[in-house]
Amino acid sequence: MLTIAAIAGWIALPIAILRFQIRGLTPLLACNGAAGALMALHYGLSGLHAGAAMAATAAAAAWLQLAIGGRISLKGRFAIAIPAIVFCFYLAGTTASGWVGLLPVLAFTIGRIAETSRDDFWVRVISLCSTSAWLIYLAIEWSVPGLAFEIIGLSSNLLGLVRFHRSRVAALIRKRSTLDER
């Protein structure tokens, strides 16, 4: 039998995939907010309160960036991200055990930093780092559903980068190879 928690999680998955398949910052942030809210509901109803709090905080930060982030300075956009990051550090301090428990904090922090950009290209590129931290954490914890979710998200992000920003990706790679030759 499907529970409300499971339904919320399953609805969040296509929204999380969709966020990287739509061009532009506005739909990306809207999908981040919607997927985060659904995952907060999923975690909360499943009794995973720290995860619910982190997902709800991520959703709120994404919606704030969506609502006012485009009209304020970079400093203002960081002012939206910093309380979410501080809250996440607080949660980690009360729930994390060992360095592995800090990987979600790192992933969360990078994700909020990515959302401060006004350019969906940089949100996507910085999100690759966030996804990498999640993948390491989930592999260590051997969370197969979590790994599947992040691998699907990573694939969607890479596909979106190629579809919408092929020339910028190529320029970034050329710049990197030029630096390596020096």
What's the arrangement of secondary structure elements?
Blueprint: H1 4-18, H2 25-45, H3 49-68, H4 74-95, H5 103-114, H6 120-141, H7 144-181
Helix pairs in contact: 1-2, 1-7, 2-3, 3-4, 4-5, 5-6, 6-7
Which term fits the overall shape? globular
**N-to-C SSE string, H for helix and E for strand:** HHHHHHH
CA-CA gap between termini: 60 Å
Q: Give the amount of beta strand, in percent.
A: under 5%
The Cα radius of gyration reads 16 Å
What is the tally of beta strands?
Answer: 0
Percentage of residues in helical conformation = over 70%
Identify low-pLDDT runs: none
Total helical segments: 7
**What is the arithmetic mean of pLDDT?**
89
Alpha-beta content class? mainly alpha
Q: How would a crystallographer describe the biggest sheet?
A: none
Task: Describe the structure concisely.
With 182 residues, the chain is mostly helical. The chain is built from seven helices and no strands.
What can you tell me about this protein's structure?
With 182 residues, the protein is an all-alpha fold. Helix content is 82%, strand content 0%. It has helices at 4-18, 25-45, 49-68, 74-95, 103-114, 120-141, 144-181. The longest helix is centred in the C-terminal third of the chain and has 38 residues, at 144-181. The mean pLDDT is 89.
